[in-house]
Amino acid sequence: MRGEVEIAVESDNPDRFAPGSRFKDGLVIRASRTHNGRVIVTFEGVTDRSGAEAMRGTVLKIDADEARPLDDDEFWDHDLIGSTVVTVDGEVIGVVDDVVQQPSGSLLSVGKHLIPLVRGIVTEVTDGKIVIDPIPGLLDA
Predict the structure, then answer these.
(1) Could you give the angle at the alpha carbon of 39 between the alpha carbons of 102 and 78, nearest 5°?
(2) Where in the chain is the domain with CATH 2.30.30.240?
(3) Distance CA 97, CA 139 (A)
C-alpha cells in the first residue's frame, strides 16, 4: 500500500501504534498492521511513497504523561543518561552517555565501559546516581 512506513519499535506498549495514536510532532496514525514481525503504519497526511520515504529517520516521541507507569525496578533510558556511576566502594567510574539495548538486556555505556543493567551488578539507582558492584574484570581496560 502506498504511504506505508515501517516502524522500528522501541515501545513495550502494544497499543502505541494503534490507529488514532498521536505523537509530539503532530503525526497521527491512520492505520497499522504487522507483517513478518514488523509494524507497518500509515500516517494521516502521508498518502504516497514519496511522503513515506521522507519520513525515514523520523523519531516518534510521546509526552511523558502518556507513558505507562514504571515498576520500582524499571527506568526510562533517558532518565539514566547523565547519571554518575560509582562503585559500592565509592570509586567514580564516569557518567552514563548512552543505554545500549541488546537482545540479552540493557547495557550502560560509561566512557569505555559497557556495564550490564542487571540486579547483580547495579545495586542502586537514585536521581542522578547509579551504584554498581562490579564483577571481576568488568572495569579492566
Answers:
(1) 45
(2) 77-132
(3) 16
The tens digit of pLDDT for each residue in 21-37 reads: 999 888 999 999 988 88
> CA 34, CA 7: separation in Å to the nearest integer?
10
How far apart CA 43 and CA 27 sit, in angstroms, is 7
Distances (CA, A) of 119 to 36, 74, 94, 128, 139: 34, 11, 19, 18, 17
CATH T-level topology, domain 77-132: SH3 type barrels. (2.30.30)
Long-range contact set of residues 77-81: C-beta below 8 Å, sequence gap at least 24: 77/101, 77/106, 80/108, 80/117, 80/125, 80/130
Grid cell 511523558 is found at 64
Per-residue buried b or exposed e for 117-130, using 16+ beta carbons within 10 Å of the residue's own CB: beeeebeebeeeeb
Mean pLDDT of the chain: 90
Rounded to two decimals, the pTM is 0.68
Alpha-carbon span 64 to 40, nearest angstrom: 24
